[in-house]
Design goal:
Elements (H helix, E strand, L loop, with lengths): L11 H9 L5 H12 L11 H19 L7 H45 L3 H7 L28 H6 L2 H6 L6 E3 L3 E8 L2 E12 L5 E14 L2 E12 L1
Antiparallel strand pairs: 1-3, 2-3, 3-4, 4-5
Length: 239
């Protein structure tokens, strides 16, 4: 007859350890990993979905651990994941806001240069800021409709055509009688390496022919091989 063998018996301390064993929450681990990955949102705002998902998963993990307090572990990794995700979300949002404000400030300075060139009668600089050098064709590919010739019957030059634009005609050469108010930012959005900024300026002209109106400018900023370049896409007179 085979000899019987006694199985090893657990001590009271070991028995307590077996009873107290609780598995680590998978959600807590995923939340921690996502919290670390969410730091990539600091490099690009398009990745802001990562910290958002990290916050959601961390909260779900903490709620589940609290509900199953005697069955699951993982509160610490879930809290770390939540902290990392919240930091990435707030830092990336703040960076996006400051970047937007910096670009809008650049657009306002560029627009003010254009206004200043117009009111002092510097047509060449105004056209260059509008990305329309006097020697180049107009954006319509030639003479503007309704303004094909000057008063002598000769074909109008690009500078003459440009001066016939409503807003340019109102401001050109007016000097110190033109006053600009604080601009209103109508739009500011980014498309790849391009920024599009819409600004509205209240304009007041003093003197015998006083007038008040709004001027709306659409400016574009692009980054190319030569660096950052601004241009005015449109400048319209709002009556």
């Amino acid at each position: 007859m085979a000899e019987s063998r006694d199985l090893p018996r657990l001590t009271a301390h070991q028995d307590d350890q077996v009873v107290d064993y609780r598995p680590l929450s998978v959600l807590a681990v995923v939340a921690l990993v996502l919290g670390v990955i969410s730091l990539a949102a600091l490099l690009s705002l398009s990745l802001v979905i990562l910290p958002l998902a990290g916050v959601l998963l961390s909260l779900l993990a903490l709620a589940r651990i609290r509900w199953l307090d005697t069955e699951l572990l993982g509160r610490v990794p879930a809290m770390i994941g939540l902290a990392l995700s919240l930091f990435s979300l707030s830092a990336s949002s703040a960076d996006a806001w400051f970047t937007r404000q910096r670009v809008v400030d650049q657009a306002e300075r560029y627009a003010q240069r254009w206004f200043a060139a117009l009111v002092r009668g510097d047509m060449e600089l105004a056209m260059q800021l509008h990305d329309l050098p006097p020697a180049s064709p107009t954006p319509h590919g030639g003479n503007l409709p309704g303004h094909r010739h000057d008063h002598h019957g000769e074909p109008a030059t690009p500078a003459q055509q440009y001066r016939q634009r409503p807003l340019v005609a109102r401001l050109y050469g007016r000097g110190n009688i033109v006053h600009l108010g604080e601009p209103e930012t109508l739009s500011a959005y980014r498309d790849g390496n391009h920024w599009m900024i819409g600004l509205r300026y209240p304009v007041k002209i003093e003197g015998s022919r006083s007038a008040s109106f709004d001027a709306t400018l659409l400016l574009r900023r692009r980054i190319g091989e030569t660096g950052v370049r601004w241009r005015i896409d449109s400048a319209e007179l709002d009556k």
